[in-house]
Amino acid sequence: MKSAAGRKGDGKCPRAPLFFELGGDYIGPDVAVGQRSWNIRAQNLCVVVSWLAEGEKLQDEASPDEHAILVLGDTSLHVESESGDAQLATGPSLVIVPAGAASAVANSPGWVARIFTARAGAVVEQAINTEDYETANPAVAGLPDLPADAGKGSIRVHSADAVGDQIFRTDSLLLKWFADSSGEDETSGLAPLVEDDLERVSITIDGDHVHHVRRPWSADLEDWRADEHVQCTSPSISVIPPGNINLTRAVGGGVHTRIDVFAPVRAENGSIANGSDYARATASSAS
Hints:
Strand content: 35-45%
Largest sheet: 7 strands, antiparallel
CATH topology: Jelly Rolls
Structural class: mainly beta
Number of helices: 2
Distance between the termini: 44 Å
CATH class: Mainly Beta
Radius of gyration: 18 Å
Number of strands: 20
Helix content: under 10%
Order of helices and strands: EEEEEEEEEEHEEEEEEEEEEH
Low-confidence stretches: 1-11, 25-33, 283-287
CATH architecture: Sandwich
CATH superfamily: Jelly Rolls
């Protein structure tokens, strides 16, 4: 595991990105049987990536808002909320879990990623990189107010189409699930992006990816940083703060699986697959 943390920043220059490789020599179905979990945070959200053996259970304390579970590969997961609502999710799929406590049991071994907002304090406090956020980044937009009906929903399971990219959301999170790709991305026709007030958190489960990051120059020469081209082997998590021009490119052979997460929900040009579940919240925020 590695973290390439930079200066805390003074508002003139974007903060540096963070990169974490979660593999190591002791993880995976071919190395050890049993649960392995890695907890990485950003300012507004927290990602817990786990390898589960068959029959293993995840138990989460009560959260004040919805969280998301990525069921990856052909993993099968039984999810239950504190109200007794229960659903079986077979990967690749996304599970939206309402506020409150929840548990999940693996019916078959595989990868699972749980994504919470920073409101889930008990989870966020366990992140290995809490020191990166001892001082909040003023460039990052805050989370929205909780909806009045928080905690009253049911568990929803959405299948992830392996053919095309899909966008999903919760009350406070936006997830872009990229279609699995094979082999390297082309080096022409690339589309670097920059977020003005959001961190981009990338979760990779399969394949190697190179994160290209350019930090725009400020008026202070001491803030200038060289471009970064960081290659990470899956599973990995990267956190790209706002203001950084960035691009993630799949490299090497085999399958590449990646999901990007943002908090709060950002405006999207494309349609949100489960957007109808949040039509009231979208209309309210636009008024």
